[in-house]
Amino acid sequence: MWVKPTARKTVMYELEAALAEDHHFSGGHVISSMCTDPLDIAKEAHAMFIESNLGNAGLYPGTLRLEKMAIDAMGRLLGAKDGNIAGGIVSGGTEANITALWIARNITGKKKVIFPKSAHFSFHKACDILAMEPVMVPLNENFTIDLDEVTRRVDSDTAAVVGIAGTTELGAVDDIHGLADIIPEGVFLHVDAAFGGFVLPFLRDLGHRVPDFDFSVEKVSSIAADPHKMGMATVPSGALLVRDRKWFRTIHKDAPYLDTVGQLSALSGTRCSAAAAASYAAMRSLGREGYIKIVEGCMDVTHHALGKARKMGLEPVMEPVMNILCLRVPDPKAVQKSLDVKGWKVSVAQNPPSLRLVIMPHVTKDGIDGLFSDLGDVLEDRR
Length: 383
Ligand SMILES: Cc1ncc(COP(=O)(O)O)c(C=O)c1O
Description:
Blueprint: H1 8-21, H2 40-48, H3 61-77, E1 86-90, H4 93-108, E2 112-116, H5 122-130, E3 133-137, H6 147-153, E4 158-164, H7 176-182, E5 188-192, H8 200-205, E6 220-225, E7 238-242, H9 274-311, E8 324-327, H10 332-341, E9 347-350, E10 353-358, H11 365-382
Parallel strand pairs: 2-3, 2-4, 4-5, 5-6
Antiparallel strand pairs: 1-7, 6-7, 8-10, 9-10
Pyridoxal-5'-phosphate binds near residues 93, 97, 166, 192 and 195.
């Protein structure tokens, strides 16, 4: 491969062939991903800022300014009242969650992390990397964290308690106020709103009952929210926001060789800063109104899917709170496999076992009609 240069035409041919193997959101058959086709202006911004590296922020004051504005906008979206909220664009929910627990460990000097069974696997990664102790809490009948069980498990060695605002499998929202009420002073309260961060505020605008899950709850210390999921930005773009900017100092490491004025103390060195520009562009371009319309559209399609399911005699695991719908079907994995053969990418949830549909903005009612037509055939064949 490395011996001789290859003609551009050949390289492009190889790239196109690889791209053709991939599944694309535009086809409408991917109903399993929490990402979507980014907004055009986000793609343009990504291309414009392709050489930026906020890991060496002194060279990119313009990109740094965009990142700060994106974080500021997200802070305001997520209940921040003062200017002390700090944060940065990171590679995604995983990095945001790891960084939050890193800060929690360093502030408290403690080890235990209490999180619900529904938490994303990034919390297990975080505990592994940070030598922290994961304490998994069972769920209640609403598929949210059981507060009594949290009370039972919190002790003097607890660094952090985690609540999820939009679980990966079901889109359930933990009782963040309830968590805030029961955790002792000094315990770090992290909210993983990687998915819900760009859904829940707009659902509230649409009149849905959305309990406070963000910085409006005084004890919430940090929030993860991903622009590359419902934020319509490019991959990789997550965000970590923390209530007090000085907490970032607890993870700071000097890097004298870099021109790092004003740089975020982050897990990554070099950062994909094009995604920071893309996140800014998506938020600036859509405004609150744009996101409200997108979320309204996704919920409309979600309820369309729910109606189709019920007509077929299928029940949801729970009434969808956001644009994730899990259906009780016999042997979900086998059904998923059969749908895959028919060209549909759907996923399965484990708790409880069900067929999981993530109704992102690229999923249309026509697409859902096609999926349910094939699902009907698959279920009929399996009878
Ligand atoms: C609730 C939640 N948190 C964290 C993550 C991890 O995000 P990423 O894949 O961007 O690292 C996900 C991914 O699906 C998620 O749903």
